[in-house]
Design goal:
alpha/beta, about 250 residues, globular, Rossmann fold, 7 strands, 8 helices
């Protein structure tokens, strides 16, 4: 798919999401960004998009709520005039012991990491069809893509991200006839989470065959590839510096 003068909605407008937004704007796309609480980061991303000469629109949405997923897509299409791609990046990531993982916590994670990806995709599909086809890129995780949990304390997160892979494959089959290609990115050690110590950061580097953190730009490259490709669908691409082979 040619990206120039096309429109994309990205759920999540900070850190990696901001890098993806800037990369797509540099290739000629207008961008709608959603945020829940990270308004300042989303505004900074929007400024960078406009600096690249493209239109940017921001929408606040709590994607754990189904109606807000629909409203987000509708508002994005209204602002952009069309929709050619959806990038589902919104995520809840926190370490919680199993004994403290109750129903409310389960729902808080799964509703954003998995259910919202489905609901936003479902809302986007009519608009992608109207554009003659399009792309959906979901976000999983390198651990989930590797098929086994490696870290305790992330039970609902791991389950949700495994579910994203299944969602991606099933949507790819359902939407192939509409020329809507659906894929997923599974990031590995891209950027250190806030609060990471030097010792923890070094341990990640040692455990990564390429010996370093990847940086946000590597995820942006993967998303650009999946949007531009016309013959890749139903895939989950690990961007993890080789973590899964060690």
């Amino acid at each position: 798919m040619q990206l120039t003068d096309r429109a994309v909605l990205i759920t999540g407008g900070k850190r990696i999401g901001a890098a993806v937004a800037q990369a797509l704007a540099s290739r000629g796309m207008d961008v709608a960004l959603s945020f829940n609480r990270s308004k300042q980061e989303a505004e900074a991303a929007a400024e960078a998009i406009r600096a690249a000469g493209r239109r940017a629109f921001l929408f606040q949405a709590d994607l754990s709520r189904g109606p807000e997923c629909q409203a987000l897509v509708d508002n994005a299409v209204r602002a952009l005039g069309r929709l050619d791609a959806l990038v589902n990046m919104a995520s809840v990531y926190a370490s919680v012991p199993l004994d403290a993982t109750d129903e409310a916590l389960w729902d808080a994670v799964v509703d954003v990491d998995l259910k919202a990806a489905f609901l936003c995709a479902r809302a986007a599909v009519p608009h992608l069809r109207a554009a003659g086809g399009g792309r959906i890129v979901n976000f999983s995780d390198w651990v989930a893509a590797s098929g086994r949990p490696r870290y305790k304390g992330f039970l609902p997160y791991y389950v949700a991200k495994r579910g994203v892979i299944g969602l991606t494959e099933a949507l790819a089959l359902e939407l192939a006839a509409d020329q809507i290609l659906v894929n997923a990115v599974a990031p590995g050690p891209i950027v250190a989470p806030p609060g990471t110590t030097d010792e923890e950061s070094t341990a990640v580097e040692v455990a990564t065959p390429l010996g370093r953190w990847g940086g946000e730009g590597e995820i942006a490259k993967a998303v650009v590839f999946l949007l531009e490709s016309d013959f890749v669908t139903g895939e989950t691409i690990r961007v993890d510096g080789g973590r899964h082979v060690k």
